[in-house]
Write a structure and sequence with these properties.
Layout: H1 2-9, H2 13-20, E1 30-37, H3 46-54, E2 65-68, E3 78-81, H4 86-89, E4 90-92, H5 100-111, E5 122-131, E6 139-147, H6 157-165, H7 186-217, E7 244-249, H8 263-281, E8 290-296, E9 309-315, H9 323-341, H10 344-353, H11 358-374, E10 382-388, E11 396-397, E12 400-408, E13 418-424, E14 427-435, H12 446-467
Parallel strand pairs: 4-5, 8-10, 10-13
Antiparallel strand pairs: 1-6, 1-12, 2-3, 5-6, 7-14, 8-9, 11-12, 13-14
Helix pairs in contact: 8-9, 8-12
């Protein structure tokens, strides 16, 4: 019974990867920002804020857990039940920001450090009295939610925000989140880890034979981005910095109401054009022709745990100058890549990866991460994620209503600008995250890039509107 409890509580290999790869300076945490008005100038005090969140804790009981490591990391980590007290989860920041950009600087510094999932895998940082970015003289309260990527992904953000701020009092449910064990199980974890290491060479050999036969039976297509890759990549050292910069813009997409274009396709088109112009101004080429886009997987990926997503590579199609035509081409490329990544062959390969013992998986994953950071493998120009909270959003706090939602994802090595799209009701926000300027890239100018991106969103919206209803 105890062995079964421990086994069912283990993290999948994808979730475990997001856990152990989250290190100081390069956390993999997911952040969501919920911005609420402070009606009639009522800035809540610490007691009011904690009382409100305490009244919602029973709706997020699914997150009453922490991660336990197997002794010596011989096997995959697993979930263990933990107390869920508001004082352990919610932090009210008393320091007032002079501007909304000043608040962005505060949360950018916070985002450089990951949560301690072995203690509590999520935190809520509440900032009352932040200057309203829309209305001079008004203030807002921002709830910045930080969660371990081993426990929550972007698609789970809506459920957590609904549980914390929704009117219906709907409890949070997270697809793929394993039930926590009642206590730690060091003996079961150690025994299983040693046994798996002992038999894995035989299993791996059989897998190699099957893969070789399959490769002979049919030709394998190369992954996008590997064809024509530079045979002598830049392997110069990349300085890692804990410092980062965040900007939020809120383009008007009302002209696209009723269109069939996806936000991801339109946003990727705007990013493509803005990055092209940004690097052209600096006399540089795009770092890569591809953008990394997460692809949600179907039911056959249920064994992957919470992170039922895989990375897709979508061409930016900078060879097409006209915005509407580029948007249509990017939409088609995005659809093809989603079909490729969500295919039975790709998901079977992901399941086979999970058969590796945890020590082997950790070593290979870290080697691949180092190769990406050093430029030894082809990188991407940017990474983009999207969260759709739905059209019917009724979220509030006792002192105000929801204005908009935003968020950031983890930084990808050697990428200047990361993008996160968030939609809640009629409000749409784009968050741009970048490493702070350093000695290697002293000319990185996020404000100029955001200015270009804002202009391009208007151009793309107008061009697509003139072109008529688009395709998915």
């Amino acid at each position: 019974m105890l062995f079964r409890e421990w086994r069912s509580a283990r993290l999948s290999w994808v979730d475990a990867g997001n856990y152990f790869q989250s290190i100081p300076g390069r956390p993999t945490d997911w952040w969501s920002f919920a911005v609420f008005s402070e009606d009639r100038g009522r800035t809540p005090d610490r007691g009011s804020i904690l009382s409100f969140f305490d009244s919602r804790m029973h709706l997020v009981s699914a997150l009453a857990r922490r991660i336990a490591d197997a002794p010596g990391s011989l096997d995959y980590p697993y979930w263990v039940k933990a107390d869920l007290a508001v004082d352990d989860v919610v932090t009210v920041h008393d320091a007032r920001s002079s501007t909304f950009e000043d608040w962005l600087g505060s949360v950018a510094r916070l985002s450089a450090d990951g949560v301690d999932a072995a203690r509590c895998p999520w935190q809520v940082h509440v900032f009352p009295g932040v200057p309203d970015p829309d209305e001079p003289g008004a203030t807002v309260t921002v709830a910045a939610i930080q969660a371990s990527h081993a426990m929550l992904v972007g698609s789970s953000a809506r459920g957590l925000l609904e549980a914390l701020f929704g009117e219906e009092g709907r409890p949070l449910e997270v697809d793929g989140l394993a039930p926590p064990a009642g206590t730690t199980h060091p003996v079961a974890a150690t025994t299983h880890g040693i046994a798996r290491l002992a038999i894995w060479p035989v299993v791996a050999l059989g897998g190699l034979v099957r893969a070789n036969l399959e490769a002979r039976r049919r030709r394998q297509d190369p992954l996008p981005g590997t064809v024509g890759a530079d045979p002598t990549p830049d392997t110069s050292a990349v300085a890692q910095t804990n410092r980062r910069v965040i900007r939020i813009l809120r383009p008007d997409l009302s002209a696209l109401a009723g269109r069939s274009w996806t936000v991801t396709a339109l946003g990727l088109t705007a990013v493509s054009l803005a990055m092209e112009r940004y690097y052209r101004e600096r006399g540089e080429d795009l770092p890569s022709e591809y953008a990394a886009v997460p692809v949600a997987l179907g039911e056959s990926a249920a064994g992957l745990g919470v992170n039922r997503v895989a990375g897709g590579l979508v061409p930016l199609h900078v060879e097409i100058p006209e915005p509407a035509q580029r948007a249509a081409t990017i939409a088609d490329s995005l659809a093809r890549e989603r079909a490729r990544v969500d295919s039975a062959e790709s998901i079977d390969a992901m399941h086979r990866t999970g058969a590796a013992p945890y020590p082997v998986f950790r070593r290979v994953s870290r080697a691949l991460a180092h190769a990406l950071a050093s430029g030894a493998v082809p990188g991407v120009a940017t990474a983009l994620s999207s969260v759709n909270c739905g059209a019917d959003v009724r979220w509030s706090v006792p002192w105000g209503h929801l204005k908009f939602v935003a968020g950031v994802q983890a930084l990808v090595p050697r990428v200047d600008f990361m993008h996160t799209f968030a939609r809640a009701g009629d409000a749409f926000a784009v968050t741009v995250l970048a490493p702070a300027r350093d000695d290697l890239r002293p000319d990185r100018d996020i404000d100029r890039y955001v200015e270009l991106l804002d202009q391009v969103f208007a151009e793309v919206s107008a061009a697509v509107g003139r072109a008529g209803a688009g395709r998915r």
